[in-house]
Amino acid sequence: MNEDFWAADAIMRAGVGSVFPAAQLVILCDGGPAFSASYGWLDPDTRQQPTGPHTLFDLASVSKLYTVAAFMALVEAGSASLDQPVCDVLPELAETRPIQAYEDPLSPGDWVVVDAPGSECAVDARQVTFRHLLTHTSGLPAWRPLYREASADGARRMALHTFFSYPTGARVVYSDIGLILLGMAIERLTGLSLAEAIHRSVLAPLALRETRYLPVADPFDPTEEAVAPNVAPTEFCAWRGRRVAGEVHDENAARLGGVAGHAGLFSTGAEVARFGHAFLAGGLVSPETIAQMTREQARDGDIRRGLGFALWSPDPEASGNPFGPGAFGHTGFTGTSLWLDPRRGLGVAALTNRVYYGRGAVGIAALRVALHRAIVEATDT
Fold first, then answer.
1. Which residues form the domain of 312?
2. DSSP assignment string, 5-45
3. Within a domain: residue 195?
4. What gap in Å lies between CA 278 and CA 93, rounded to an integer?
5. Can you give the pLDDT at residue 251?
6. Last-in-domain residue among 142, 165, 190
7. What is the pLDDT of residue 182?
8. What dihedral angle (degrees, nearest 10) is formed by the CA atoms of 249, 252, 257, 262?
9. Start-to-end Cα distance in the chain
Protein backbone atom coordinates (compact mmCIF):
# COMPACT_ATOMS: atom_id res chain seq x y z
CA MET A 1 0.00 0.00 0.00
CA ASN A 2 1.18 3.52 -0.78
CA GLU A 3 1.56 4.94 2.73
CA ASP A 4 0.70 8.43 1.46
CA PHE A 5 -2.93 7.33 1.25
CA TRP A 6 -3.25 5.83 4.73
CA ALA A 7 -6.02 8.30 5.66
CA ALA A 8 -8.06 7.46 2.55
CA ASP A 9 -7.57 3.76 3.26
CA ALA A 10 -8.76 4.26 6.85
CA ILE A 11 -11.90 6.04 5.65
CA MET A 12 -12.76 3.16 3.33
CA ARG A 13 -12.10 0.57 6.03
CA ALA A 14 -14.35 2.46 8.43
CA GLY A 15 -17.12 2.46 5.83
CA VAL A 16 -17.28 -1.35 5.68
CA GLY A 17 -20.31 -2.58 7.57
CA SER A 18 -21.84 0.85 8.02
CA VAL A 19 -21.91 2.62 4.65
CA PHE A 20 -21.32 -0.41 2.42
CA PRO A 21 -20.39 -4.10 2.74
CA ALA A 22 -17.98 -4.14 -0.23
CA ALA A 23 -15.81 -1.62 -2.06
CA GLN A 24 -12.81 -0.96 -4.27
CA LEU A 25 -10.64 2.17 -4.35
CA VAL A 26 -8.19 2.90 -7.16
CA ILE A 27 -6.13 6.09 -7.35
CA LEU A 28 -4.08 7.12 -10.38
CA CYS A 29 -1.48 9.88 -10.23
CA ASP A 30 0.02 11.19 -13.47
CA GLY A 31 -1.35 8.16 -15.27
CA GLY A 32 0.27 5.59 -13.03
CA PRO A 33 -1.26 3.48 -10.26
CA ALA A 34 -0.73 5.14 -6.89
CA PHE A 35 -3.10 3.09 -4.73
CA SER A 36 -5.44 0.13 -5.13
CA ALA A 37 -7.37 -1.79 -2.49
CA SER A 38 -10.48 -3.89 -2.02
CA TYR A 39 -12.65 -3.88 1.07
CA GLY A 40 -15.29 -6.00 2.74
CA TRP A 41 -17.22 -9.04 1.60
CA LEU A 42 -19.74 -9.99 -1.05
CA ASP A 43 -21.63 -11.87 1.65
CA PRO A 44 -21.33 -9.70 4.74
CA ASP A 45 -23.22 -12.21 6.88
CA THR A 46 -20.75 -15.09 6.43
CA ARG A 47 -17.66 -13.04 5.47
CA GLN A 48 -16.56 -15.94 3.26
CA GLN A 49 -16.46 -14.06 -0.04
CA PRO A 50 -13.93 -11.24 0.27
CA THR A 51 -14.07 -8.45 -2.29
CA GLY A 52 -11.18 -8.70 -4.76
CA PRO A 53 -9.71 -6.54 -7.51
CA HIS A 54 -11.72 -8.45 -10.14
CA THR A 55 -15.07 -8.17 -8.36
CA LEU A 56 -17.57 -6.39 -10.59
CA PHE A 57 -19.64 -3.50 -9.25
CA ASP A 58 -22.87 -2.12 -10.68
CA LEU A 59 -21.77 1.31 -11.95
CA ALA A 60 -25.33 2.72 -12.00
CA SER A 61 -25.19 6.27 -13.42
CA VAL A 62 -21.44 6.19 -13.97
CA SER A 63 -22.58 4.13 -17.00
CA LYS A 64 -23.80 7.41 -18.50
CA LEU A 65 -20.21 8.52 -19.14
CA TYR A 66 -19.63 5.51 -21.41
CA THR A 67 -22.82 6.30 -23.34
CA VAL A 68 -21.71 9.91 -23.72
CA ALA A 69 -18.23 8.84 -24.85
CA ALA A 70 -19.77 6.61 -27.52
CA PHE A 71 -21.96 9.45 -28.73
CA MET A 72 -19.06 11.93 -28.84
CA ALA A 73 -17.15 9.44 -31.00
CA LEU A 74 -20.09 9.60 -33.43
CA VAL A 75 -19.94 13.39 -33.35
CA GLU A 76 -16.23 13.27 -34.21
CA ALA A 77 -17.01 10.88 -37.07
CA GLY A 78 -19.60 13.31 -38.46
CA SER A 79 -22.54 10.96 -37.84
CA ALA A 80 -24.25 13.43 -35.50
CA SER A 81 -23.78 16.95 -34.14
CA LEU A 82 -24.30 18.47 -30.73
CA ASP A 83 -26.83 21.04 -31.85
CA GLN A 84 -28.74 18.65 -34.09
CA PRO A 85 -32.40 18.13 -33.05
CA VAL A 86 -32.83 14.75 -31.42
CA CYS A 87 -35.96 14.21 -33.51
CA ASP A 88 -33.75 13.93 -36.60
CA VAL A 89 -32.73 10.54 -35.19
CA LEU A 90 -35.70 9.78 -32.96
CA PRO A 91 -38.70 11.10 -34.95
CA GLU A 92 -41.01 10.15 -32.07
CA LEU A 93 -39.94 13.44 -30.47
CA ALA A 94 -41.33 15.57 -33.31
CA GLU A 95 -44.38 16.83 -31.41
CA THR A 96 -45.55 19.28 -28.76
CA ARG A 97 -45.93 17.88 -25.26
CA PRO A 98 -47.32 19.18 -21.97
CA ILE A 99 -45.28 20.19 -18.93
CA GLN A 100 -46.23 18.12 -15.88
CA ALA A 101 -44.96 17.03 -12.51
CA TYR A 102 -43.20 13.65 -12.53
CA GLU A 103 -43.22 10.73 -10.13
CA ASP A 104 -40.68 10.95 -7.27
CA PRO A 105 -38.50 7.81 -7.59
CA LEU A 106 -37.46 7.92 -3.92
CA SER A 107 -40.86 8.72 -2.42
CA PRO A 108 -43.62 6.66 -4.05
CA GLY A 109 -46.86 8.56 -4.28
CA ASP A 110 -45.18 11.97 -4.32
CA TRP A 111 -44.69 14.13 -7.39
CA VAL A 112 -41.87 16.52 -8.31
CA VAL A 113 -42.73 19.94 -9.73
CA VAL A 114 -39.90 21.65 -11.61
CA ASP A 115 -41.63 24.21 -13.82
CA ALA A 116 -41.76 27.73 -12.38
CA PRO A 117 -45.19 29.37 -12.13
CA GLY A 118 -46.08 31.48 -15.12
CA SER A 119 -43.78 29.72 -17.59
CA GLU A 120 -44.80 27.83 -20.69
CA CYS A 121 -47.36 25.06 -20.37
CA ALA A 122 -46.03 22.93 -23.23
CA VAL A 123 -42.76 22.14 -24.99
CA ASP A 124 -42.10 21.61 -28.68
CA ALA A 125 -39.95 18.50 -28.47
CA ARG A 126 -38.46 19.32 -31.88
CA GLN A 127 -36.30 21.99 -30.25
CA VAL A 128 -34.47 19.50 -28.03
CA THR A 129 -30.90 18.95 -29.24
CA PHE A 130 -28.30 16.40 -28.30
CA ARG A 131 -26.48 19.14 -26.39
CA HIS A 132 -29.59 19.51 -24.23
CA LEU A 133 -29.54 15.77 -23.45
CA LEU A 134 -25.83 15.85 -22.60
CA THR A 135 -26.16 18.88 -20.30
CA HIS A 136 -29.43 17.78 -18.65
CA THR A 137 -31.23 20.90 -19.87
CA SER A 138 -33.74 19.21 -22.22
CA GLY A 139 -36.86 19.78 -20.15
CA LEU A 140 -37.37 16.04 -19.82
CA PRO A 141 -38.33 14.71 -16.39
CA ALA A 142 -35.62 13.23 -14.23
CA TRP A 143 -37.37 9.88 -14.06
CA ARG A 144 -40.43 7.93 -15.15
CA PRO A 145 -41.55 4.46 -13.94
CA LEU A 146 -40.61 2.62 -17.12
CA TYR A 147 -40.30 -0.63 -15.17
CA ARG A 148 -44.07 -0.74 -14.66
CA GLU A 149 -44.53 -1.46 -18.36
CA ALA A 150 -45.05 -5.11 -19.23
CA SER A 151 -42.17 -5.30 -21.72
CA ALA A 152 -38.95 -3.63 -22.85
CA ASP A 153 -40.78 -2.29 -25.91
CA GLY A 154 -43.40 -0.71 -23.66
CA ALA A 155 -40.69 0.88 -21.54
CA ARG A 156 -39.03 2.33 -24.64
CA ARG A 157 -42.34 3.76 -25.81
CA MET A 158 -42.90 5.44 -22.44
CA ALA A 159 -39.45 7.05 -22.62
CA LEU A 160 -39.94 8.17 -26.22
CA HIS A 161 -43.38 9.65 -25.58
CA THR A 162 -42.97 11.12 -22.10
CA PHE A 163 -44.22 14.55 -21.11
CA PHE A 164 -41.78 17.33 -20.14
CA SER A 165 -41.18 18.86 -16.71
CA TYR A 166 -39.92 22.37 -17.62
CA PRO A 167 -39.18 24.47 -20.73
CA THR A 168 -36.16 23.29 -22.69
CA GLY A 169 -33.01 25.13 -21.64
CA ALA A 170 -34.57 26.85 -18.63
CA ARG A 171 -33.06 24.65 -15.90
CA VAL A 172 -30.54 21.91 -15.22
CA VAL A 173 -32.46 18.82 -14.12
CA TYR A 174 -30.44 15.62 -14.07
CA SER A 175 -32.42 13.19 -16.22
CA ASP A 176 -32.18 9.44 -16.63
CA ILE A 177 -34.75 9.75 -19.41
CA GLY A 178 -32.46 12.00 -21.44
CA LEU A 179 -29.63 9.45 -21.35
CA ILE A 180 -32.00 6.60 -22.12
CA LEU A 181 -32.99 8.49 -25.27
CA LEU A 182 -29.32 9.16 -26.06
CA GLY A 183 -28.68 5.41 -25.90
CA MET A 184 -31.58 4.78 -28.28
CA ALA A 185 -30.20 7.42 -30.64
CA ILE A 186 -26.81 5.69 -30.67
CA GLU A 187 -28.51 2.44 -31.66
CA ARG A 188 -30.34 4.09 -34.55
CA LEU A 189 -27.27 5.99 -35.73
CA THR A 190 -25.05 2.91 -35.72
CA GLY A 191 -27.48 0.10 -36.46
CA LEU A 192 -25.94 -1.73 -33.49
CA SER A 193 -27.19 -2.60 -30.04
CA LEU A 194 -26.05 -0.09 -27.43
CA ALA A 195 -23.86 -2.75 -25.82
CA GLU A 196 -22.08 -3.45 -29.12
CA ALA A 197 -21.73 0.25 -29.97
CA ILE A 198 -20.12 1.00 -26.59
CA HIS A 199 -17.90 -2.05 -26.88
CA ARG A 200 -16.61 -0.97 -30.29
CA SER A 201 -16.07 2.72 -29.57
CA VAL A 202 -15.15 2.74 -25.86
CA LEU A 203 -14.34 -0.63 -24.27
CA ALA A 204 -12.28 -2.22 -27.05
CA PRO A 205 -10.08 0.85 -27.79
CA LEU A 206 -9.18 1.08 -24.09
CA ALA A 207 -8.83 -2.72 -23.67
CA LEU A 208 -11.44 -2.73 -20.90
CA ARG A 209 -11.99 -6.48 -20.87
CA GLU A 210 -13.87 -6.75 -17.57
CA THR A 211 -16.33 -3.89 -18.15
CA ARG A 212 -19.62 -5.20 -19.47
CA TYR A 213 -23.38 -5.15 -19.39
CA LEU A 214 -25.04 -8.13 -17.73
CA PRO A 215 -28.23 -8.50 -19.79
CA VAL A 216 -31.42 -9.46 -18.00
CA ALA A 217 -33.70 -11.77 -19.98
CA ASP A 218 -36.41 -11.69 -17.31
CA PRO A 219 -36.21 -9.48 -14.19
CA PHE A 220 -38.46 -11.93 -12.36
CA ASP A 221 -36.30 -15.01 -13.00
CA PRO A 222 -34.30 -15.63 -9.79
CA THR A 223 -31.79 -17.81 -11.66
CA GLU A 224 -30.46 -14.62 -13.29
CA GLU A 225 -28.39 -13.90 -10.18
CA ALA A 226 -26.23 -16.97 -10.82
CA VAL A 227 -24.89 -15.58 -14.10
CA ALA A 228 -21.95 -13.70 -12.56
CA PRO A 229 -21.09 -14.84 -9.03
CA ASN A 230 -18.17 -12.41 -8.56
CA VAL A 231 -20.45 -9.36 -8.56
CA ALA A 232 -21.08 -7.19 -5.52
CA PRO A 233 -24.77 -7.69 -4.62
CA THR A 234 -26.97 -4.66 -4.20
CA GLU A 235 -30.40 -4.05 -2.68
CA PHE A 236 -33.23 -6.37 -1.79
CA CYS A 237 -35.60 -5.32 -4.57
CA ALA A 238 -39.30 -5.26 -3.67
CA TRP A 239 -40.25 -5.24 -7.36
CA ARG A 240 -38.27 -8.42 -8.11
CA GLY A 241 -38.84 -9.98 -4.69
CA ARG A 242 -35.20 -10.82 -4.02
CA ARG A 243 -31.78 -9.37 -3.41
CA VAL A 244 -30.22 -8.25 -6.67
CA ALA A 245 -26.94 -9.92 -7.62
CA GLY A 246 -25.44 -10.29 -11.06
CA GLU A 247 -28.00 -7.99 -12.69
CA VAL A 248 -28.55 -4.26 -12.80
CA HIS A 249 -30.00 -2.65 -9.67
CA ASP A 250 -31.92 0.07 -11.53
CA GLU A 251 -35.45 -1.16 -12.22
CA ASN A 252 -35.88 0.83 -15.42
CA ALA A 253 -32.60 -0.53 -16.81
CA ALA A 254 -33.70 -4.05 -15.82
CA ARG A 255 -37.00 -3.65 -17.66
CA LEU A 256 -35.01 -2.44 -20.70
CA GLY A 257 -33.11 -5.74 -20.66
CA GLY A 258 -30.17 -4.65 -18.54
CA VAL A 259 -28.69 -2.50 -21.31
CA ALA A 260 -29.60 1.19 -21.26
CA GLY A 261 -28.02 4.59 -21.77
CA HIS A 262 -28.34 5.63 -18.14
CA ALA A 263 -27.32 2.47 -16.25
CA GLY A 264 -26.39 -1.17 -16.67
CA LEU A 265 -22.60 -1.36 -16.92
CA PHE A 266 -20.54 -3.37 -14.44
CA SER A 267 -16.82 -2.91 -13.95
CA THR A 268 -13.86 -2.91 -11.59
CA GLY A 269 -12.14 0.02 -9.94
CA ALA A 270 -9.04 -0.46 -12.07
CA GLU A 271 -10.96 -0.34 -15.34
CA VAL A 272 -13.13 2.62 -14.30
CA ALA A 273 -9.95 4.49 -13.38
CA ARG A 274 -8.42 3.60 -16.75
CA PHE A 275 -11.53 4.82 -18.55
CA GLY A 276 -11.35 8.08 -16.62
CA HIS A 277 -7.67 8.53 -17.38
CA ALA A 278 -8.52 8.64 -21.08
CA PHE A 279 -10.05 12.06 -20.41
CA LEU A 280 -6.82 13.28 -18.86
CA ALA A 281 -4.34 11.79 -21.31
CA GLY A 282 -6.44 11.29 -24.46
CA GLY A 283 -6.69 8.15 -26.53
CA LEU A 284 -10.45 7.82 -26.77
CA VAL A 285 -11.65 11.11 -28.27
CA SER A 286 -9.68 14.16 -29.40
CA PRO A 287 -8.30 16.81 -27.00
CA GLU A 288 -10.73 19.29 -28.54
CA THR A 289 -13.66 17.01 -27.75
CA ILE A 290 -12.43 16.44 -24.21
CA ALA A 291 -12.15 20.21 -23.75
CA GLN A 292 -15.79 20.58 -24.82
CA MET A 293 -16.95 17.78 -22.54
CA THR A 294 -15.17 19.19 -19.48
CA ARG A 295 -15.91 22.92 -19.74
CA GLU A 296 -19.03 24.51 -18.30
CA GLN A 297 -21.92 24.11 -20.73
CA ALA A 298 -24.79 24.78 -18.31
CA ARG A 299 -25.25 26.01 -14.77
CA ASP A 300 -28.12 26.13 -12.29
CA GLY A 301 -27.05 27.55 -8.92
CA ASP A 302 -24.08 25.49 -7.71
CA ILE A 303 -24.78 22.74 -10.27
CA ARG A 304 -22.34 22.93 -13.19
CA ARG A 305 -22.51 20.55 -16.14
CA GLY A 306 -20.20 19.76 -19.01
CA LEU A 307 -21.18 17.30 -21.73
CA GLY A 308 -22.07 14.24 -19.70
CA PHE A 309 -19.73 15.15 -16.87
CA ALA A 310 -20.60 16.85 -13.61
CA LEU A 311 -18.09 19.66 -12.97
CA TRP A 312 -16.50 20.99 -9.82
CA SER A 313 -19.05 22.66 -7.55
CA PRO A 314 -18.51 25.34 -4.90
CA ASP A 315 -20.92 23.42 -2.67
CA PRO A 316 -18.70 21.99 0.11
CA GLU A 317 -20.97 18.94 0.36
CA ALA A 318 -20.56 18.08 -3.34
CA SER A 319 -18.43 14.99 -3.92
CA GLY A 320 -16.09 16.78 -6.32
CA ASN A 321 -15.59 19.87 -4.16
CA PRO A 322 -12.29 18.79 -2.55
CA PHE A 323 -10.65 18.65 -5.99
CA GLY A 324 -9.50 21.62 -8.05
CA PRO A 325 -11.88 23.95 -9.93
CA GLY A 326 -11.14 22.11 -13.18
CA ALA A 327 -12.25 18.73 -11.84
CA PHE A 328 -14.95 16.65 -13.49
CA GLY A 329 -16.60 13.31 -12.81
CA HIS A 330 -19.80 11.43 -12.06
CA THR A 331 -21.47 9.43 -9.32
CA GLY A 332 -23.76 6.41 -9.36
CA PHE A 333 -26.74 5.64 -7.13
CA THR A 334 -25.39 2.25 -6.09
CA GLY A 335 -22.46 4.04 -4.42
CA THR A 336 -19.97 4.39 -7.26
CA SER A 337 -17.98 7.42 -8.39
CA LEU A 338 -15.27 8.56 -10.77
CA TRP A 339 -13.51 11.93 -10.42
CA LEU A 340 -10.64 13.42 -12.41
CA ASP A 341 -8.52 16.44 -11.42
CA PRO A 342 -6.42 17.58 -14.40
CA ARG A 343 -4.25 20.02 -12.45
CA ARG A 344 -3.11 17.28 -10.11
CA GLY A 345 -3.07 14.56 -12.79
CA LEU A 346 -5.33 12.66 -10.42
CA GLY A 347 -7.98 10.02 -11.07
CA VAL A 348 -10.10 8.44 -8.32
CA ALA A 349 -12.47 5.50 -8.83
CA ALA A 350 -14.38 4.46 -5.73
CA LEU A 351 -16.85 1.62 -6.24
CA THR A 352 -19.21 0.46 -3.50
CA ASN A 353 -22.54 -1.31 -3.13
CA ARG A 354 -23.96 1.07 -0.54
CA VAL A 355 -27.56 0.24 -1.61
CA TYR A 356 -27.09 -3.22 -0.06
CA TYR A 357 -28.40 -1.57 3.10
CA GLY A 358 -31.31 0.10 1.25
CA ARG A 359 -31.60 3.05 -1.10
CA GLY A 360 -32.36 5.39 1.78
CA ALA A 361 -28.88 4.98 3.26
CA VAL A 362 -27.17 8.39 3.09
CA GLY A 363 -23.68 7.86 4.52
CA ILE A 364 -22.06 7.63 1.08
CA ALA A 365 -22.27 11.40 0.46
CA ALA A 366 -20.21 12.36 3.51
CA LEU A 367 -17.79 9.48 2.95
CA ARG A 368 -17.07 10.64 -0.62
CA VAL A 369 -16.24 14.16 0.49
CA ALA A 370 -13.99 12.92 3.33
CA LEU A 371 -12.32 10.39 1.04
CA HIS A 372 -11.61 12.91 -1.71
CA ARG A 373 -10.34 15.45 0.78
CA ALA A 374 -7.92 12.89 2.23
CA ILE A 375 -6.67 11.96 -1.24
CA VAL A 376 -6.12 15.61 -2.21
CA GLU A 377 -4.26 16.30 1.01
CA ALA A 378 -2.03 13.29 0.42
CA THR A 379 -1.18 14.34 -3.15
CA ASP A 380 -0.51 17.96 -2.16
CA THR A 381 2.01 17.14 0.58
1. 3-68+200-380
2. GHHHHHHHHHHBTTTBSEEEEEEEETTEEEEEEEEEBSSTT
3. no
4. 33
5. 97
6. 190
7. 99
8. -80
9. 17
Task: List the chain residues with pLDDT less than 70.
Answer: 1-2, 116-119, 222-228
Asked if residue 170 and residue 290 are part of one domain, the reply reads no
Looking at the fold, whether 153 and 269 belong to one and the same domain comes out as no
Predicted pLDDT at 2: 64
Q: C-alpha angle 331/336/340, rounded to 5°?
A: 60
Q: Give the global pTM.
A: 0.96
Instruction: Report d(CA 11, CA 5) in Å as an integer.
Output: 10
In a shared domain, residues 265 and 243: yes
Model confidence pLDDT, tens digit, residues 104-148 = 999 989 999 997 655 578 999 999 999 999 999 999 999 999 999
Alpha-helix runs per DSSP H in the chain: 6-15, 63-76, 130-135, 152-160, 176-190, 194-198, 251-255, 269-281, 287-293, 363-380
Non-local CB neighbours of 251 within 8 Å, separated by 6+ positions: 146, 147, 219, 237, 239
